[in-house]
Amino acid sequence: MAIMKIARMGHPVLLQHAAPVEDPTAPEIRRLVADMIETMEDAQGAGLAAPQVHMPLRLFVFRVNPDRATADAEDITVLPHGVVINPQIELLGDDVRLRWEGCLSIPGLRAAVPRSWRIRYTGVDTDNRPVGGEVTGFHAGVVQHEFDHLDGIMYPMRMQDFSLFGFNEELARAAQART
Ligand code: NI
Prior knowledge:
CATH class: Alpha Beta
Bound molecules: nickel (II) ion
CATH superfamily: Peptide deformylase
Distance between the termini: 44 Å
Structural class: alpha+beta
Strand content: 25-35%
């Protein structure tokens, strides 16, 4: 396994429309997924899409750790980590909420981004088994963020209120000052 170099915003690979994975069970796809999981965990990210490691393919990895998933009282989804190859996503209902998110391609920053609270998604893993389901909250937010990467969409392109955008340290300082 290997830790991969993460493309930062401004790199053209992040603006591409990624291509479908022809054979999700191919050895090079398994290797890519293993390397992406290691890279995500090393960078302490919640998700990583293949274009972020310079591979414009329709797949992403993510993890929903229990602490973050249960921060939302209504959100009971817990998933250690997952891979989604050739995903399809459907936004359910009109409940759209601002969720704070960051991106490994935009290090040090985060923002409040409008995301659908509830979604349904499908895809396959590296054994070609179906993955996904109907999810809410953090899980739904991560999947929408990662799915966007496959269409060349970075989270600032979804933002409506740029006053809710800043460096992690400054936002933490400001939040502390308010309490
Ligand atoms: Ni991202």
